[in-house]
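Reply to thread "Modeling small-molecule complexes from scratch"

Following up on the discussion above, here's a worked example others can learn from. I took a protein sequence and the SMILES for calcium ion and predicted the complex. Inputs first:
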Amino acid sequence: MLTLTLSNEDNVAVARTALAKDVLLPEHRGLACRSDVPQFHKVAIKSIAKGQPVIKYRQVIGVALTDIAAGEHVHDHNCGMTDERIAPATKAKTAELPPDIETSFEGYLRADGEVGTRNYVGIITTVNCSASVAKAIEQYYSQAEVAGRYPNVDGVIAITHGSGCGMNKGEGYELLMRVCAGMSQHPNFGGVMLIGLGCEVLQLSALLDALPDDVRKRSNTLVIQEQGGTRATIEAGIEKMAVLCEVSNTLSRTPQPVSKLRVGLQCGGSDALSGITANPALGRAMDILTSLGGTAILSETPELYGAEQMLRARAASDEVADKLNDRLAWWREYAGKNGAQLDNNPSPGNKAGGLTTILEKSLGAQAKGGTSTMTDVVAYAQLIRKSGLVIMDSPGYDPVSVTGQMASGANLICFTTGRGSVYGSRPAPSIKLATNTPMYEKMTLDMDYNCGEIFDGEISLEDAAVEIYRTIVRVASGEKTKSELHGIGALEFLPWPVGAVL
Amino acid sequence: MLTLTLSNEDNVAVARTALAKDVLLPEHRGLACRSDVPQFHKVAIKSIAKGQPVIKYRQVIGVALTDIAAGEHVHDHNCGMTDERIAPATKAKTAELPPDIETSFEGYLRADGEVGTRNYVGIITTVNCSASVAKAIEQYYSQAEVAGRYPNVDGVIAITHGSGCGMNKGEGYELLMRVCAGMSQHPNFGGVMLIGLGCEVLQLSALLDALPDDVRKRSNTLVIQEQGGTRATIEAGIEKMAVLCEVSNTLSRTPQPVSKLRVGLQCGGSDALSGITANPALGRAMDILTSLGGTAILSETPELYGAEQMLRARAASDEVADKLNDRLAWWREYAGKNGAQLDNNPSPGNKAGGLTTILEKSLGAQAKGGTSTMTDVVAYAQLIRKSGLVIMDSPGYDPVSVTGQMASGANLICFTTGRGSVYGSRPAPSIKLATNTPMYEKMTLDMDYNCGEIFDGEISLEDAAVEIYRTIVRVASGEKTKSELHGIGALEFLPWPVGAVL
Ligand SMILES: [Ca+2]
Ligand SMILES: [Ca+2]
Ligand SMILES: [Ca+2]
Ligand SMILES: [Ca+2]
Ligand SMILES: [Ca+2]
């Protein structure tokens, strides 16, 4: 078959290969293409009158801007945004577990009951001004001879960012404080050192106040202006760090239930296959995880716009559904006052990949969350303490979104990509799932799993989901991801910059 | 004398040392302190009735919130914001040049007539997604054996940032494009490589379109998704970089007029001495530089609030004065819609250092610009092509402001600090000027010059200005700054994040 049709109510189909004008589509009673259709783009399989909805996934993905004849390429030249929605028939489902599925992984049990998938020592910075000092301490401990003293430690890593001063104490300050507090107690850290400059807006003492007692007690702190500058702080940091590394080096992996996994879900560089292959397969893997008591974190709020009805229909309560509404309302205001539009979120790469509207992107994006009950909705970087499918509010932009997910407690990230992202995160490792085989074959060294084989007919979606779940368990137990092998993640830690920079 | 009085119209004086309650001030006819006054904080030397202006530098720095008796500590408990201003008596002045002042430095003359103070090779990234690849190429070329092949090259440096996608094409996009375009043609780069991912909003092809022909022609470009991923791009980048390094290695310093210097002015971690020692001394050094045809860049627009009348009075034309008004109006809107206040800009460190209001901070801050004619007002990261004193709009936040100054063409930064900043920038080196001796003595290894000696009575402001000017000439000619010796600057490159992150 030259095309893939996702439901019998759809009036567009997806081109499996590039279709030239006049090519006949036998699966659609010999319909002839009226224009060239690039691979993975949409072709109309019924005529759609101007103003009528364009239907894919049994949902509205846009409205015809002109009369569209059957056989025409459907994209942003003839398909635009609409407010029309179709209420979903599906409610929350409980997944049936595959036989012999793993229910535990090898993790680091922390004092507070949280479990790490890695055993790093972290250096948390309250402000950009302490970033270079933190980095210098990281570099000292990255030397082979020094790192070799602590074989059970995955590394000393500086968590640096670009903010912490030049700001008022408003929404942006609170957000950054949550990020710093969340990272300071991240389960993938065996210990943390906190470093400030001294005169910044986000004061180290305020961060300490925001931490639980046990974390505060086991944290080392340094203030550059008190130490007497760059060199003195680096020297003091190197000395104090040895104790944190020694303690962390005594820890080892033990069997832990998968209910201790919190998986941050992400897509980046989406294409038209994201919603057909990688996202639904990842969603099914999340159904397995949440059935076993684990947590799936769906974020990228602007990419839920147009799919919110799917999530609200399976909220644990009206309160949870209302929280989602509140966040979407916040986003409309945030976008509006910044002169931005939520409905033209698809990036140039998304569009080239065949995604026409944010509705189409969103319907594909929400599939990552699976079909279980939406148990909670939390703010960016807010600690997640409920299991099941939780929404953590964030932009769609990958590094900013994953940073919030890690600060909220994600100890693993699953990242689907169509155009070929080379993203990586730390301290939580990031598994990259390719949506299509051509990209996978071109960028194999960056991809952890090829979901394109679902589209190729080489594996069922169900079997791919089990493969993804098993990859999660292996990576959580210590297997390195491609991005970890490349050493990516230091420059990708990016707290969401909200509010005025002064 | 226990206090310093800046003009005979002032009703407050600055405490030279911490003053205990009941201490007598002989220089004010035996006035007794009515409360403890911390060092560098203000003491009332006349009684100030509630609602009356508090005067320092012959200007309004605030309004009395209560009746203030002579001898009382004046700070944010009894002094608040006001809209009152005193029109300045001073117009633009042309500086008298000190005898035997240097009129040239040793710099790198580029093909376009611009002159570098350093000879780096740059790697410009269009998006965060290409940051790690750029860093890996930098790291390869940082190895002693590789760097050793290019003794005339100061290093290969990756210019990475956190944006480039997850955004609409609005104000924030245009700003980031200016930053990328400005850095691509920075005179401190002998050559540049441009690296993108492929699917991002800020496309490499659009950046190339924004560059002058000669820069575009001598730039190498790489797109990760075209190359086939992380490893392939790093390998291709390492190979292509050799050519850039070889070409840059053929260049050497030659005598160049100081008119080719563009100095970005900055304060960070200001205290009450900033406006008394380092800033006016730096301003006098800028008067020398601009008299010789060089350029001084004053920025930190929120810290001009309250001192705008001083600048408008010496604008080259009404158009230039209007441009400043326009930027201040933009700032009021930006702060307002983000729920921020321009008038509480002083950070905790500023306040601890004795700065009470933004007016007081601003009056001290604008002194960095000297007393010459304000020749132009440009947007953040907009290329500066006029000489003299130019305002480049930016936040006060150091790394964000300096990033814009460098993108606008600053080939050197002068940074005054009271609390003790450990800031550094690259590719433009950053000279740090301490405002007070206690901080200088504590953080000597981070400070390039101690302006505290002006306050101590060990050097005149005039002589300190000449010392600063000579330090600028030496550093422009290759002498390393303290922050360069510490290797600071990679994590401090921060384009201003304006607009919604989507
Ligand atoms: Ca994303
Ligand atoms: Ca295959
Ligand atoms: Ca060299
Ligand atoms: Ca500043
Ligand atoms: Ca001295």
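What I'd highlight from this example: The longest strand of chain A covers residues 189-196. The pocket of calcium ion (ligand 3) is lined by residues B 147, 151, 153-154 (CB under 6 Å). Questions welcome below.
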